[in-house]
What does this fold into?
Amino acid sequence: QCKPPLKVKDLFIDIQDGKILMALLEVLSGQKLMHEYKSSTHRIFRLNNIAKALKFLEDSNVKLVSIDAAEIADGNSSLVLGLIWNIILFFQIKELTGNLNRNSSSSSLSSGPSGPESDTSHPSTPSVERNVSVAVKDQRKAIRALLIWVQRKTRKYGVAVQDFASSWRSGLAFLAIIKAIDSTLVDMKQALEKSARENLEDAFSIAQNKLGVPRLLEPEDIMVESPDEQSIVTYVAQFLEHFPELEGEDFTDPDKELPIESTYVHIKDTPSEKEGKILILSESEENMYTVNHERSHPAPPKVHIHDTPE
It folds into this structure.
């Protein structure tokens, strides 16, 4: 989005002179940083560029722990990734989820200490530990807010999202979010007849082509035993950014139950000793449904539960 555009070919190499980092922060914050960039092959100038970017992040209350200019200039992969994740978390996830809870005292979701007592210019072991603790707390709070938003958007379509990992493997959660935005784009009944790969491909394609949400993931990224939580969080947060009109809906009352439009449950093959009874739990586990069927007949491929007591 820079003018002229910049292309990143290798993150660990391209970030080492500070230009890509400063340009990224300029685009995300809307503030001017590139005028401070000095192009040079000398390490001292490269370190100075990165230091200015890190100082801007600290001034923006982005909590960086154990990340210094030298490590970024050397292309330390784990610290570069840690830095980028902190930038994503603050500029995309924290700011967007901060607007969800309108009763929150701070839209930035930054609950860390402020004022002179929080000065970390001369870090000691206790202050570093405190910053780590605050950073982790902030991260969990932001991700929790996003998860609650997702649950409220997907619940009425019978999709239970418990986390930002295994809950997304079937592709139904992605499709339910899209349907909550535009119900004409997704048919959940048809999705139940498709494979996880097909649903994931449909979701990513529809989101990009119809809603303008950039495709950051591929089905193969999700169809693993433990999908990467940070990748899914980053992708899902884009829906908030593109559709701010959905923010805040029913969010200030997290205990309020929303009506369930319909629930579709896949019945997998079960061992012979268990096939006579199938137990289905609702998302809150408050209501349980037991389905009995003749042993001489195969288990039903799916069960449709209406939101009525009958």
Remarks:
- Residues 132-256 form a domain with the Actin-binding Protein, T-fimbrin; domain 1 fold (CATH 1.10.418.10).
- DSSP finds eleven helices and four strands in the chain.
